[in-house]
Protein: DUF4245 domain-containing protein
Organism: Nocardia lasii
Amino acid sequence: MAQQKHRIFNDYRDLFWSLIPLVLAAVVLAGVASQCTVATSGPTQGQIPYFDATAALKLDAKTMSFPIRQPALPEGWVSNSGSRDSITAAGGGAVSTVGYITSQGTYMRYSQSDATEEALSRHVLGSRYPTGTKEVAGQKWVVYAEPTEESGWIADLGGVRILITGAGNEAAFTALAAAITAAPPLAG
């Protein structure tokens, strides 16, 4: 009969060899439970959630005290989210937000509010400050940009401030800004 080693003579190799059966058992159990997969290609885009932006914006036009716009967006943009919020800080007001996935797969959103530009920017963009302006379709947009953060563009359309933000490039911001500027207010 083989004599067992005293505990003082065990080292990291003994630990390593004793863990191998445990790891193999865990892999087999995970495989049997179909919890492990081996990816043969890179990540794929999942299904985009559906959000009825038309219905939400029509309801907001009826219930909010400022003009609500629904832009006609480029083909391939899909609405995937929306929300209502309130800014309680000085100069605050109600906020209606709709988010989209662009045809390039990036996320863009725009918020409409009767809050002041400063209150809206602080609420959504935090401590970012204006860094310049852009003119799109005859409308001036104040640009809030920082190198490591998403940009934000804000315009005053008379009685309503519009804030655009997202992960899109400048072309996506410009397309959304032009569509919002051209959109008439919805009937309330």
Q: What stands out?
A: The chain has four helices and seven strands. Strands lie at 78-86, 94-101, 107-113, 130-136, 139-144, 152-156, 161-166. The longest strand covers residues 78-86. The chain has a mean pLDDT of 88.
